[in-house]
Every structure is written in structure tokens, then in C-alpha cells.
Description:
Layout: H1 11-20, E1 41-62, E2 67-80, E3 84-92, E4 95-102, E5 106-116, E6 120-124, E7 127-135, E8 138-156, E9 159-175, E10 184-202, E11 205-216, E12 222-233
Amino acid sequence: xxxxxxxxxxxxxxxxFGSLLCxxxxxxxxGTPRTVEPGKISHSVSLESFGYIGEIEELxxxxxxxxxxxxxxxxxxxxxTLPSYQLRAGLTDMLDIxxxxxxxxxxxxxxxxxxxxxxxxxAVAPGLQYFFLSAEEASVHIVYLxxxxxxxxxxxxxxxxxxxxxxxxxxxxxxxxxxxEAAASADGxxxxxxxxxxxxxxxxxxxxxxxTMMKSVEGPGLVYNFGIGFxxxxxxxxxxxxxxx
Length: 245
């Protein structure tokens, strides 16, 4: 009897499998569209959690006909994950790069381009995340390509509201059995949206709660990340918003 292979592992299942092993997709930035000044470095440490809402199919006996029927029910879960770390380095006046360790289990990198600054800020921040999952006879390599558009309103030099719509594309490949036939891939497109609030206590410290929700376009189900980031170091400057003395 052949064992099931990874070709039957749809992206929502990959998301759930990853979340249970603390290797979940993590699109949270805990930042604003503004980039770090050239030659400067900032850091972020975040405490996070992961949740999902989806549908699963179960086989159930119909007592009136004694036949087995398929029933669909909604399932959900919410669990804390390990902390994440991010380092950002300024390259030019409107360009910086970020390196990430997501949930102490996966790695990522992104490039942020920030052409618009003022009361309203705008940036694009394409990036990727990679992790490897292994449990018993299952092993999966997963890459997520993130493409958010970061928008922010800055009512004051100490506070920003950040909204980040975008898309994420997941690529997964691996083995779900120990034979040579169990090698295939699964991929999928997710729509995503983030909402964050940054409170800057000083030029070198800020607190940034953020939530991101992701929805697969290939089937039912919703996953979300919530966390609180603690940012320190050479944070982006907002001195242009300060009122003249």
C-alpha cells in the first residue's frame, strides 16, 4: 500500500502543519515605511502568537441509512510561538535591508524602499522567508515570498498608524513518506493585510503591536499573526514632524 505523498498537501494544510511546529509564515514587520538612516542599524525583538480558522472534512455514519457521509466542520486554534528577532541596516536615504530570525525556527530577508515621507509615508518591502520542517517521516521545505505595500499616517512625531496590504506566495516541497515516490510540491497565493501602531518613547526605543491576516485564494481558511515588537537602536527619524520651537 502506497503512503500519501506531498502532492496531496494543500497550502492551508502546510500552514497548519507549520504552525504546530513553530515554523509558521510570519509576515509581521513591527516597523513603519520609513527606512533606517544610511550606515545605521536598528533591532527588533517581538513576542508573537499564531492563529487559524479553517474547514475540515470528516467521515460520519448516517444513522438513518447506515451509509458513510462526508461532513464539513469549522476548526480554529490559537497558540503562542517563540520570539522573533530582526536587524535592519540603512543603505541609502530611502533604502534599507532587513534580516530576520522568525520564531527562532526560520530565516528571512527583505528590502524596503521608502520614496514618500511626511505626514503620510509609503514604502514597498519585498522579502522572503524559508524554513524546514521535520517530524517522524514527514519533512517539508517551505519558502514564502512576501510583497507588502506599507502605508502610514503620522499624527505626531511619537505615533504612527501603519496599514500594509499585499500578497504572499507559498512554495512547499518535501516528503511525507519514506519512499522515493513521495516527492512533490504544493504552492499557493494568499491575500494579506496588516494593521500596526507604533509608539515611540524616544529616538531609540519604540513599541509596535501588529496583526496580519492571510487568506488563501485556493480554498477556505484564514491564518493570522499577532505580536508586540520592541524596537531599539538607530530607529528611523521623525524629526521633520516636530513643531518648530
